């Protein structure tokens, strides 16, 4: 005889599949999806889904999850703090402490106004995950910020300034 093991699909509260074509596949391998991008998938979970995902994807106790859920209803709740807990738990489980540290460093560094410094390993790991462009040294040398912005596609024309 043949035996099999099946699992239900992971669905969002609106009935759509989690982690498929809508968001891009969520790979467990860091070579297919960096720990940073993996972490970001879970940070983006809507409030309506985060408690269900904590129950299905983490080893947190039901008591701790209930406390997090209660905290979400309080006026002093910090938005996305439960999503951060989910992202940290799942990223650490899949990518280990180092993968989580890499994801947190990258997340902090990419926040507006951040003064965080990244090592080359982290920069290399997230380079394909964030918007970027390449310009040669000659293209950058003696170019104004406006010229560089147009070349990078940040502005449609110089007149847009």
TrEMBL record:
- Note the superkingdom of the native organism: Eukaryota
Name used for this protein in its record: tyrosine--tRNA ligase
| Ligase among keywords | yes
| Class of the enzyme per the UniProt entry, highest EC level | ligase
Read off the InterPro entries from this record: aa-tRNA-synth_Ic, Tyr-tRNA-ligase_bac-type
Enumerate the Gene3D superfamilies for this protein: Tyrosyl-Transfer RNA Synthetase
- Keyword entries, A-Z: Aminoacyl-tRNA synthetase, ATP-binding, Ligase, Nucleotide-binding, Protein biosynthesis
Q: Which GO terms describe its cellular component?
A: chloroplast stroma; cytosol; mitochondrion
Q: List the Gene Ontology MF annotations in alphabetical order.
A: ATP binding; tyrosine-tRNA ligase activity
Q: Which Pfam families does the UniProt entry name for this protein?
A: tRNA-synt_1b
Q: One biological-process term from Gene Ontology?
A: tRNA aminoacylation for protein translation
E.C. number, please? 6.1.1.1
Tell me what reaction this enzyme catalyses: tRNA(Tyr) + L-tyrosine + ATP = L-tyrosyl-tRNA(Tyr) + AMP + diphosphate + H(+)
Provide the leader sequence positions.
Answer: none
Record flagged with keyword Cell membrane: no
Say which family it is in.
Belongs to the class-I aminoacyl-tRNA synthetase family.
């Amino acid at each position: 005889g043949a035996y099999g093991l099946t699992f239900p699909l992971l669905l969002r509260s609106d009935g759509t599949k989690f982690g498929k074509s809508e968001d891009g596949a969520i790979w467990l391998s860091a070579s297919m999806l960096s720990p940073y991008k993996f972490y970001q998938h879970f940070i983006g979970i809507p409030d309506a889904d985060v408690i269900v995902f904590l129950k299905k994807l983490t080893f947190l106790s039901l008591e701790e999850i209930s406390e997090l859920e209660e905290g979400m209803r309080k006026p002093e709740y910090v938005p996305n703090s439960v999503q951060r807990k989910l992202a940290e738990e799942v990223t650490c489980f899949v990518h280990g402490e180092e993968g989580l540290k890499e994801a947190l460093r990258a997340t902090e560094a990419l926040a507006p106004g951040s003064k965080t410094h990244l090592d080359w390993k982290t920069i290399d790991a997230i380079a394909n995950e964030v918007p970027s462009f390449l310009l040669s040294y000659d293209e950058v040398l003696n170019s104004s910020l406006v010229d560089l912005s147009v070349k990078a596609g940040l502005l449609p024309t110089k007149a847009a300034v």
